[in-house]
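Appendix C: a fully annotated inverse folding record. The material below is reproduced so that readers can follow the format used throughout the book. The structure is listed first as tokens, followed by the designed sequence.
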């Protein structure tokens, strides 16, 4: 299985963060594999909206400048091809890059295809935990866990693509082990 190494190339020391499966006592958990199809569906919906809007704009330009329709059509078809490739390729790569682990004091998440993001949440800073399930998530049997921390209004961590019962179990576990001021 192709797993990212999450090497920190930006630091001056040569400290390497281990891949998702090789972390010792507390292994990283993967998201539910159905999240790939969910992300593909949401990307396809966004692509359709984008392509319709661009198509309408191209139609107005082609009506105003009749000789431009071939170039506009070629550009629209190129955009269609790029969106199709990204909609199919990116979700599988994002799934392989995602992982989380929980120990007695910290929740750690890792994600990112192009930019690797490692977030550490000290459980003593956990304020409250939300469980989100939109219509598409419900259709796929998934949920997202939203963790709010003490700090600014943007101090949240989202763990997407969890199986709904696993998300509820993890929410209950986080609430149970959270700090004194956790909900």
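Designed amino acids, in order:
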């Amino acid at each position: 299985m192709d797993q990212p190494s999450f090497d920190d190339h930006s630091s001056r020391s040569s400290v390497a963060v281990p891949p998702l499966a090789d972390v010792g006592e507390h292994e990283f958990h993967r998201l539910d594999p159905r999240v790939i199809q969910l992300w593909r569906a949401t990307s396809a919906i966004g692509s359709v909206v984008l392509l319709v809007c661009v198509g309408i704009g191209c139609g107005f330009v082609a009506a105003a400048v009749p000789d431009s329709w071939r170039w506009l059509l070629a550009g629209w078809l190129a955009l269609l091809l790029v969106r199709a490739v990204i909609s199919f390729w990116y979700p599988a790569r994002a799934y392989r890059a995602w992982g989380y682990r929980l120990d007695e004091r910290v929740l750690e998440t890792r994600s990112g295809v192009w930019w690797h993001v490692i977030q550490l949440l000290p459980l003593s800073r956990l304020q409250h935990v939300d469980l989100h399930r939109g219509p598409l998530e419900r259709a796929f049997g998934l949920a997202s866990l939203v963790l709010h921390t003490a700090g600014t209004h943007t101090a949240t961590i989202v763990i997407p693509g969890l199986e709904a019962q696993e998300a509820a179990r993890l929410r209950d576990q986080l609430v149970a082990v959270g700090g004194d001021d956790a909900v």
